[in-house]
Structures are given as C-alpha cells and as structure tokens.
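Re: the request from the purification team.
They wanted to know what the chain is likely to look like in 3D before they choose a buffer screen. I agreed to run a prediction and write the result into the notebook, where they can find it.
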Amino acid sequence: MTRLPFTLILILIGVTLNGNAWAASTVDWSMEEFKGDLQDMPSLQRGFQLYTNYCLGCHGLEHQRYGRTADDFEIPRELVEDNIIFTGQKVGELIKTSMPAVPAKVWFGATPPDLTLEARLRGPEWIYNYLKTFYVDEERPLGVNNKVYPNVGMPNVLLPLQGVQRAICEDENCDKLEVEEGSGKLSVAEFDQVAYDITNFLYYVGEPARLERQKIGVYVLLFILVLICFTYLLKREFFKDIEH
C-alpha cells in the first residue's frame, strides 16, 4: 500500500477545511477592497450596534461575549445592557440569537449560520461586498439576489437603509448595480460606511485577540527600539577598549 507524503496530507486537509474560503475567492464579481481598522473605535462601536439591530435576529455570535466586546470597544457595560442587548441576556453571556433553530430551518430552508468566524472563513472583503450587492430579483423566493453569493436564501435586511438596488444590463452584461434615488434612508456613501462598520466589527469578532495583540505590538516595538539604543551604547563601550 502506497503511503501519501505527510506534506501532501496536510495540503489535502487544508484544502478540505478551507474549501468554502477558496470558493469565495473565486466569485465572478469585481470585489471592492476592504481594509479593516481595529483602532477605529467609532467604527467598531457602530458596527456592534448595527449588527445587534439588523443581524442578530437571525445570526448569533456564539463564541463572543457582550462583556468582552464592550471592554474591547471602551463602552461601559451598563450602556450595553441598556441599549445593545435585546434578548434578555446578561452582559457576561455569549451573543446568541433568539431565533429558534428548527422554525428558522422551515422558514429559510436552512438554519442561519453563526457568524463568529465568518470573517476568517470567507475574508472581510467578501462580507463587505456581500452586504453591498443585494439587488431586486423577482424570480427569487424572497425577491432579492446577490452578486457575491448568487441565489442567496437570505432577505436584504439592510434594504431600508440602502434602498432598492437593481441590476443594470448593458449588452447582456448585468454587472452594474444602481440604487433607486430616494428609496433608502441613506446615501450611497453613508450606506458604504454602514457596510464597512458591520464588516469591521465581524473582522474583530473573528479574532478578538488581534486587537489586544496590535496594542501590545506597539509597546514591544518601542521596547526593542530602546533596547537597540542601549545595545549600541554597550557595543561602543566594549570596542572602545579594543580600539585603544
């Protein structure tokens, strides 16, 4: 019996585990660039609020706690309890949706997934473009489709903010989207900011330690810089005796 090389086995496992992420990267849509910023506290705070208002009804974050998020975002826990938590949970609990799994499967055809690791699975760029590319498609059961995730089974929950977006076809090419003027509460630029804030929040949720690591990294670099200065002075002191 022929044995596969250990390196090849690891590659095959990696391809299997990351198959969805690889598929997401091959979407036939010109992706807009997204660059997360975990130092932008106002964006993270807005994203936290937007997520609980528009996404948490279906999609939980079952590996993230309200309290940890509040502390990382420099929000008083009392404020989170009064204005963010709508499920009757305590601030120290995990962020769970109140939607029951079994009825959700009947309503949508599948239970809405937990999104704690969505940014790591698909990448934040995918999420950002996904949120922006819902458009009217009367042939779909929920009346909408998505350019990044074709035949999506999710309603456009951000429709009141973005407005009615339609696919514009030119020479049988329907790769242009256009929002009907005045159909949403926000302008195109304002909605882009909403999509950015939600994505930035999920970028944080995918690896909360990244925020702390970036903060510590600044102090580590400063320490190394000071250490280099002292090391250089020590080197000069040693070589002074050798040169003389």
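For the purification team: The mean pLDDT is 86.
Please add any questions underneath this entry.
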